[in-house]
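ingest -> validate -> predict -> emit
validate: passed (alphabet ok, no gaps, 128 aa)
predict: started
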Amino acid sequence: MDMQYQLKAGSYYLYDMRETPSAVTGERRFKLKTDTVAIAFDAHTGEVHQHGSPTRIQSWAAMTRRRLRAAGAQDMANDIVVVSGPLPVEEINKCLWISGYCRRMLKRLATLPHGKLQRTAEPWRRAA
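emit:
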């Protein structure tokens, strides 16, 4: 649980929770700020390889696939999957914290809610 994403003002912020918060502001410095998050992982094991901004992760995946294919590891190259978009922050963090969770998330990807839409109570309903 060292690395954690948080959604603030429509952007994803990555924090290293091992760092101590600032004595002045009480907040940690962020490692990354991005509009969408990409996660590269192994489709067979669900192991996370890289995460961060989609451009960097797509580039990493393409280069890694090329190197693996050149080394004759076609199956390993084909197992690298990249998922990106406005994913729910809880799902992103579970991928980082729980070994193999990305494989489970991939199966449910089509049913996941938009990550930047917060769940709100329906204002027209009143508690009885």
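Residues 3-109 form one domain.
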